[in-house]
Amino acid sequence: MDVNRTILSVKNITKQHQTTQSSGITDISFDIIEGEIVAIIGESGSGKSTLLKSIYGLLTLDVGEVMFQDKRVLGPDEQLIPGHKGMKMVTQDFSLNIYAKVYDNIASMLSNTDVKSKHEKTLEMMEHLHIAHLSAKRITELSGGEQQRVAIAKALVSDTRMLLLDEPFSQVDALLKNQLRADLKRIATDTGVTVVLVSHDPADGLFLADKLLLMKDGQLLQQGEPRALYNNPEHLYTARLLGNANVLSAADALTLGIDTAGKQLVFYPEWVEFDAGALQFTIKDVYYKGFYEELLLEANGLQIRGVQLTVGSGHKKNDQVLLNIGRYITPDEIA
Ligand SMILES: Nc1ncnc2c1ncn2[C@@H]1O[C@H](COP(=O)(O)OP(=O)(O)OP(=O)(O)O)[C@@H](O)[C@H]1O
């Protein structure tokens, strides 16, 4: 039997920062199941970091509570070292001792009462993170990606059940990013640890997460499994954040023969069928992207962006093409 055990429960939490404008997070509630990877995503200033810090016990909440393994997470006014010992947060600066060796950075998290077990656990964690070969290197000798693995190993070695990651891929280039995303997924599966990460790049969430939490203006706008949210966004914000959504007004939709009953028409470029249907568009521009081309299409001043074709499909600038908007949604208008 599949037993889904809640490891974290966020109950109606509100935290307003002391500024003249309203800022922070308002009345947020959700549960996280043990072993899940959860990504908190949203535009800049939407409250992602405030939420992560609240979960970790770094902020004194105005209202509500965070329960980790059925115990309330205490805030900074209640205990000197915030949080809970089963949770660890890895921040963007990694907080490593840069002069110490990789091994010592990780081992320093364990007590000396059982030196043999300390050594074994450190070795085991380095194996898990694929950094055993770096054991004797100093942090200053490592790349950004390697430092990140050491930081995660350090966070996980002391029986951590939940890993909180603040923008884990912000320090690495695009090539390494895919590798690190895949690594993080593997590590979570191998160790069974629950991961909560904050990212300004929704692609991280789509790639990695079992569950997305979409923040907007300090509120939890939508939550759910990435594929479900991508395919059925309740709000325009969700479609814009997760995909390269095209948005047309109801009046513009009508000119294309689509009656949206006054709502905006939203569709991803991959929902547009090419050389099909009866909508005649002009190719206004072709953007070369390597193994594919992206088109800018226009009809009567209406533009459709992001439709992709494989290179060599034969379509070029100023060609007339027929399109069919094979699928669209008319989500609620939270911009
Ligand atoms: N310590 C603070 N004092 C005052 N206001 C704050 C503080 N921290 C955050 N805020 C404000 O609270 C709101 C949410 O900020 P937060 O950092 O949580 O958002 P975010 O989604 O993580 O943003 P970003 O992606 O830019 O890091 C913003 O309006 C921000 O200016």
Structural description of this entry:
Keywords: ATP-binding, Nucleotide-binding, Transport. It holds the Pfam family ABC_tran. It comes from Pedobacter quisquiliarum. GO terms for molecular function: ATP binding; ATP hydrolysis activity. This protein has 335 residues and is an alpha/beta fold. It has two domains: 6-86 and 161-234, 3-Layer(aba) Sandwich (Rossmann fold); 244-325, OB fold (Dihydrolipoamide Acetyltransferase, E2P), CATH 2.40.50. It contains nine helices and 16 strands. The longest helix is centred in the middle third of the chain and has 18 residues, at 174-191. The radius of gyration is 24 Å and the shape is globular. The protein starts with 5 loop residues before the first strand and ends in a 10-residue tail after the last strand. The mean pLDDT is 91. It binds adenosine-5'-triphosphate (ATP). Adenosine-5'-triphosphate binds next to helix 1. Residues 17, 19, 23-24, 42, 44-50, 200 line the site of adenosine-5'-triphosphate.
Mean pLDDT: 91
- How are strands sequenced across the largest beta sheet? 6-7-8-3-9-10
CA gyration radius, whole angstroms: 24 Å
Rough shape? globular
The CATH class of the largest domain is Alpha Beta
Distance between the termini: 42 Å
Task: Name the poorly predicted regions.
Answer: none
Query: What is the second-level CATH architecture of the largest domain?
Result: 3-Layer(aba) Sandwich
What is the CATH superfamily of the largest domain? Answer: P-loop containing nucleotide triphosphate hydrolases
Bound ligands, named by name, code or SMILES = adenosine-5'-triphosphate
Approximately what portion of the residues adopt beta-strand conformation? 25-35%
Q: What oligomeric state best describes the polypeptide chains here? A: single chain
How many beta-strand elements? 16
Structural class by SSE content: alpha/beta
Total domain count: 2
Alpha plus pi helix count: 9
Instruction: Work out the helicity level.
Output: 25-40%
- How would a textbook summarize the main sheet? 6 strands, mixed
Protein name: ABC transporter ATP-binding protein
Organism: Pedobacter quisquiliarum
Domain ABC transporter: 8-242
Keywords: ATP-binding, Nucleotide-binding, Transport
